[in-house]
Each structure stands twice: as structure tokens, then as C-alpha cells.
């Protein structure tokens, strides 16, 4: 059975970049910033940042107050979501493609995210209703998994059908992450159904 869901995209661009050494959203890869590489993949992304940024399209949401991690950014971004699903990522996934996001967001589960060494909540598609009802109950996006009635963890075997190189999973935390492609652990897809 085929599904088709509409989705919004929240790009979190307000992290501290402490391991990278400078603002990684502004770091250029092939003459484009890591943030712009993501922005150009989507029609109207919601970019949440703690500082002003130049973006070519979408909406820039400025996060006020002290840094409190991704949860605070997601809450800010949710105020602008109007589709029934929302994909959440950070600017540190510069090789993410729209094809992969559409693949994840067209699955009818509360949460759909890749599982590499562990589940990747910052590469996840969420039911907007589920997120709105549960975001205040958690301190980390990862914690949403236990609150969900249905989670689809997409294994690397399945992801390779959409992204054979698995470049979409490259999370750039340090400058060396561009040089050393991480060895991928082979994972299989898992579906978690929590019956309460």
C-alpha cells in the first residue's frame, strides 16, 4: 500500500558547534554553506537559529534566551508547522537529500528515522500531532521513541535503496568528518509498536 503525506521541514541551526571549532552552519562545502546545502533541498524550510542568518528561502525563526539544545529549537519551529508531518534535522547533515526525506515522511508511523549505530532522531520524520502532544514531556528527541505507539527505524539495508552511498547519514561534528567516511554498521529495519 502506498501513502502520500505532506510534510514541513525544521532545520536546527543554533547549536554551539563546540567540537567543530566554529559555526558549522556557515562552513562551506563546494562553495555552499552546510546550511544552504540543506535549505536548497526543500521548498519552504523552517530554519531555527539563535543568531541572524542569510537564507535563500524558507523562514528564519530566531530562538530567544539561553541555549537549551534541540528540544527548544523544535518547540520554536513547531509554531510554524502546518502540515501533518514534520522532518527534523540539523545543519550538520549537509549531504541529506529531499528523496530520502520524502521516503521517510511517506511512512504512516508516529516516528520514522534511520538506525545506524543507534536511532537518529535528528534525521527523523514525526507526526505533527504526536510531536505537539509529547514535546513537553521529554528532554531529548530520542526519548520520544518510548512515548510513541508506532516507530519505524529504517535500517541501512533499506536506506541504501534511496541513498546507495549512505552520505545522507554523515553527521559532521568535526572537520575530520569530511575526510574520514565513517564505517557503517549494517542494520536492519525495525518496527516498534507500543500498546498501552
UniProtKB/TrEMBL annotation:
E.C. number(s) listed in UniProt: 2.7.7.77
Domain of life per record: Archaea
GO BP term (any one): Mo-molybdopterin cofactor biosynthetic process
SUPFAM superfamilies referenced in this protein's UniProt entry, alphabetically: Nucleotide-diphospho-sugar transferases (SSF53448)
EC class name: transferase
Signal peptide feature range: none
A GO molecular-function descriptor: molybdenum cofactor guanylyltransferase activity
Keywords in alphabetical order: Cytoplasm, GTP-binding, Magnesium, Metal-binding, Molybdenum cofactor biosynthesis, Nucleotide-binding, Nucleotidyltransferase, Transferase
Family annotation (CDD domains): MobA
Residue span(s) of domain MobA-like NTP transferase: 9-132
PANTHER family: MOLYBDENUM COFACTOR GUANYLYLTRANSFERASE
Protein name: Molybdenum cofactor guanylyltransferase
Protein source organism: Sulfolobus tengchongensis
